[in-house]
Design brief:
The complex is a heterodimer of chains A (332) and B (274).
Chain A (H helix, E strand, L loop, with lengths): L15 E5 L6 H9 L19 E4 L11 H6 L8 H11 L15 H14 L4 E5 L7 H18 L3 E5 L2 H5 L3 E6 L2 E6 L1 H6 L4 H6 L4 E11 L3 E6 L2 E6 L9 E6 L5 E2 L11 E12 L2 E7 L3 E7 H7 L6 E5 L6 E4 L2
Parallel strand pairs in A: 1-4, 1-5, 2-3, 3-4
Antiparallel strand pairs in A: 5-6, 7-8, 7-10, 8-9, 10-16, 11-15, 12-13, 12-15, 13-14
Helix pairs in contact in A: 3-4
Chain B lengths: L2 H4 L3 H14 L1 H23 L11 H32 L5 H13 L2 H12 L4 H8 L8 H25 L3 H9 L4 H12 L1 H17 L2 H6 L6 H11 L2 H15 L1 H15 L3
Helix pairs in contact in B: 4-8, 4-11, 5-8, 8-11, 9-10, 11-15, 13-14
Classes of the chains: A alpha+beta (332), B mainly alpha (274).
């Protein structure tokens, strides 16, 4: 090995698996190592040459051959035979692009290029499909389309896919996910679990949590609730084993999980917070509020709710968050 | 002139006029350089004695020699030079800058000096030369010598051009080809070569014109058989200018078509790609 990778990873791939990590952490390098494009020790497939590994790799730019038409690109991995053209057209049909078979890549849009690249990868009949940032280069509309199709294709073709990304939305659609940090997998599991229970603050940030509070465990009711206290606030969170009174912890909450408390329902809220609106920003169909209270918080409201509540900068609000939406992590 | 004199629209008009004034400078400069390069050839048009256009003895033989041996030298240069150009473009190695410098040596050496060098190295009394002469091949003043001299003159240029052409092919495409199940050779043939086509054809054209026009090296290593450049010299010495011009015109006629055709073909094939 000329240049050993600074990663030591063992990962399970079921169905559509997403490996989440910030930019620059080595996700692309990992895929290249699996494909054989970087020298590394890989198990399985490690003793095979690049062209022998039954793996298909889709890099970020799709790497379509500019001198070949769409169908010729798809036919590239196929051996020369009488029905090569037909097979390529059939694959293009599965991705919905048989009309564009004779176009050159320079005449295709981003989403179309990705589908051609996918068809080409599938022509290889791989046992594993590697995708590098499949959604970064696409606009929102195309992204959703392409993602749905991708997940459908994967389940239809029955090929396990390992996709790497920094986009948590992609991970939400996966069958299985893992978080990569500092050269290790720090958390792995079904997206529902991982999103609900991030183990570290950095992971929570990656998964889109925006609110963080530092405090200590003030009380613990076995299998019921945890009480966490910080400077000027007290919150209840869902119970977790292995946390005892006095432990310093970090709390994480999603901006979407904080909601406006209706007047008259104050006694129903286990975690009431009084905050003042510092700033607000329209985000498409939502409104993001920057709040100042026990800590700096962010809250995401739908446009309808924001209009109904007539929120303006400087207002004092009462907001609430359910204990099950408060994630507790040991402080690092 | 103040804008008040001509109304509020005037400054905008003035800016456009200035912009236009500079726009023809580019083509004008290009035209000047073009004229500079081609003026002597235009002069040749007038200096040639058209009514009395005839060849000297041995001119046709010289044309045949040049064409045939240049073609062979070109083929050998391309076949041998391409792997080296490929390795220079793609190979990993820390001493590559040193090899680049070494490759420059044949190019830097004055042709006569290179001819002398080759003569002493491949001559019949040198170790290498005597090896070949045992096999019946003499490497001075014979056809193999002529081709050898042309190869030394032309191959470095081809290697440099081909290397640039290969460097221009995105490495990612070659990697993808390998992940799609094609081995190194198939990748080279189906991906690298087509994408390097324009640069490679420029390299071939360059090597051709260098081989055809090689004088200094050939003069020393292979005075016989006579190619066109040496014959031009001989004609000048023995007869005079009147015997030089007709042969020169034929030289243009036979040397120019190949590079032109190669270039046009490569451009047309690559047009659809980008």
């Amino acid at each position: 090995m000329q240049q050993p990778l600074a990663l030591d990873i063992s990962l399970q791939v079921h169905g559509f698996t997403v490996l989440l990590g910030v930019s620059g952490v080595g996700k692309s390098s990992l895929l290249k190592a699996i494909a054989g494009l970087l020298p590394a020790q890989v198990n399985p497939y490690g003793d095979l040459a690049v062209e022998q590994r039954p793996i298909a790799y889709l890099p970020q730019g799709y790497a379509l051959f500019p001198h070949l038409r769409a169908w010729e690109n798809v036919a590239f991995p196929l051996s020369r035979s009488a029905h090569r053209h037909k097979d390529a057209l059939a694959l293009l049909q599965r991705v919905g692009l048989e009309d564009l078979a004779n176009r050159f890549p320079s005449e295709l849009s981003g989403g179309q290029k990705q589908r051609v690249a996918l068809a080409r990868a599938l022509a290889r009949k791989p046992q594993l499909l590697l995708l590098d940032e499949p959604t970064s280069a696409l606009d929102m509309a195309t992204r959703d389309e392409v993602l749905d199709e991708l997940v459908r294709e994967v389940h239809e073709f029955g090929i396990p896919v390992l996709a790497v990304s920094h986009d948590p939305h992609l991970a939400m659609l996966a069958d299985h996910m893992a978080i990569l940090r500092d050269g290790r997998i720090v958390q792995e599991g079904a997206p529902g679990e991982v999103f609900a229970r991030p183990r570290h603050v950095a992971s929570a940030r990656l998964l889109g949590f925006r609110n963080f509070l530092s405090g200590q465990i003030a009380g613990s009711e076995h299998n019921s609730r945890l009480q966490v206290a910080g400077s000027g606030w007290q919150m209840q969170a869902g119970w977790q084993p292995a946390l005892s009174v006095g432990m310093p912890v970090q709390l994480a909450m999603r901006a979407e999980d904080i909601y406006l408390q209706e007047d008259g329902a104050a006694h129903c809220c286990p975690n009431p917070l009084s905050v003042q609106v510092k700033a607000c920003r329209k985000e498409g169909l939502s409104m993001r509020l920057y709040l100042e209270g026990p800590a700096s918080l962010e809250m995401l409201l739908s446009r309808q709710q924001a209009e109904d509540a007539q929120i303006a900068v400087g207002n004092f609000l009462k907001v609430c968050v359910q204990p099950r939406h408060v994630q507790v992590m040991t402080a690092e | 002139m103040r804008s008040a004199d001509h109304g509020p629209g005037f400054p905008a008009y003035r800016m456009t006029a200035g912009f236009d004034r500079f726009r023809w400078m580019g083509p004008a400069l290009a035209g000047l350089v073009f004229v500079f390069l081609l003026a002597p050839f235009a002069a040749l048009l007038f200096a040639t004695d058209w009514p009395d256009f005839h060849f000297a003895d041995g001119d046709l033989g010289a044309i045949r020699t040049s064409l045939l041996y240049s073609a062979l030298a070109l083929i050998i240069s391309v076949l041998a030079g391409t792997p080296l150009a490929w390795w220079l473009a793609r190979g990993q190695g820390r001493g590559k800058w040193f090899l680049d410098a070494l490759l420059m040596l044949p190019l830097l050496t004055p042709p006569l000096a290179l001819g002398i060098l080759l003569s002493s190295f491949y001559g019949p009394y040198s170790p290498v030369g005597s090896l070949f002469s045992h096999a019946g091949i003499y490497l001075t003043n014979t056809a193999p010598a002529f081709i050898l001299a042309q190869i030394y003159g032309a191959m470095p240029y081809y290697i440099i051009a081909a290397r640039a052409a290969f460097e221009g092919v995105p490495r990612e495409l070659e990697q993808i080809s390998r992940t799609l199940g094609r081995n190194r050779f198939q990748t080279f043939w189906r991906v690298t070569l087509p994408l390097a086509r324009i640069g490679l054809s420029a390299g071939v054209a360059l090597a051709w014109v260098r081989a055809m026009g090689e004088f200094g090296i050939v003069l020393i290593v292979a005075y016989f058989p006579e190619g066109i450049p040496v014959k031009l010299w001989v004609n000048l010495q023995d007869i005079g200018l009147s015997a030089v011009y007709p042969l020169l015109w034929i030289f243009f006629l036979v040397a120019v078509p190949l590079p032109l055709w190669i270039g046009l073909r490569a451009r047309r094939q690559t047009q659809a790609m980008f």
